[in-house]
Amino acid sequence: MVSTSPSPTHDAYTAARAAFAWADLRDQGWLRLAGRDRRDFLQRLSTNDFRRLAPGGGLPTVLCSATGRVIALLTVYAAEAVLWLRTPPGRAAALAGYFSRLIFWNDEVEVSDESGAVAQFGLFGPSSADLLAGLLGAGVADLPPYAWRDGEIAGVRLTVHRGGELEVAAWTLVASAASGDVLFTQLAQTAPQLTAGQVEVLRVERGIPAWGHELSDQVTPLEAGLRAAISDNKGCYTGQEVIARQLNYDKVTRRLVGLRLPADAPVMELAGAPVGGAGKRDGFIGTAVWSPALAGPIALAILPRDLSQPGTVAHIKHGDAEWAAEVAELPFTV
Asked: CB–CB of 17/194 below 8 Å?
């Protein structure tokens, strides 16, 4: 066992920013794509280029509608004979059904929802690689973003997945559901556990959008800050014409931004509140939180481009009240 400093009783949020902490991510989904055509299938449905994805590697990608709106942000991992897909919480079954409806008669593709068969745990913080190396008995710093490898902790066989630009966790551990309690206990003895609310604060501070907040079927990937999940030079995919037009003709009319809110803003009530300026209300707040690191309330919002420059004042309307907020550069913190 590695050192228990900071102790499990230490504030987990502070530990995640200064050293390391962990969170239970068993609400996230886990899909399996198998069959000869699995790579080509995902290639034609989503924004990233899987021709360059080798076993042991991973990529973020976005499923889009025909009008270029977001259906889901996924993280895809390649094994020798399958692709594994991490999905947003509560979306795995619906996305498995979505994939199943799009398998052509001549596609050799099988999709299954394996969410109930796995346990997922996230590691957070600048020292989380050292924590993980101590647990595994082997270094992991050589893994590039989104790459993965096999490992073992406390007798539990698992896979270790490095995070990337569009993930909050620095590392994610995936084990069998039957081994989940053993891994939970080992992590609880080693580092402080983050609550879901604390993970949400870290997400907003990092400027990472999430489904049901900033991401929905009302925004495009480029509006929502998902540029890292989009390939410029792959072939056609669902929604590609809209995204290509936004890129090639500077047609991204809204952007993901940060907002610094006034101290009296009711952060728990502002999700979905309209935001605008000069008489317009063309934007909305996705998530608002109180940030201990910044000692104040902050939010992620999708705003019209003419309101998206840092320092711009935008106005939030909630009920009969209105607040002025300042647009901030993302990420708020790292």
From this structure: no
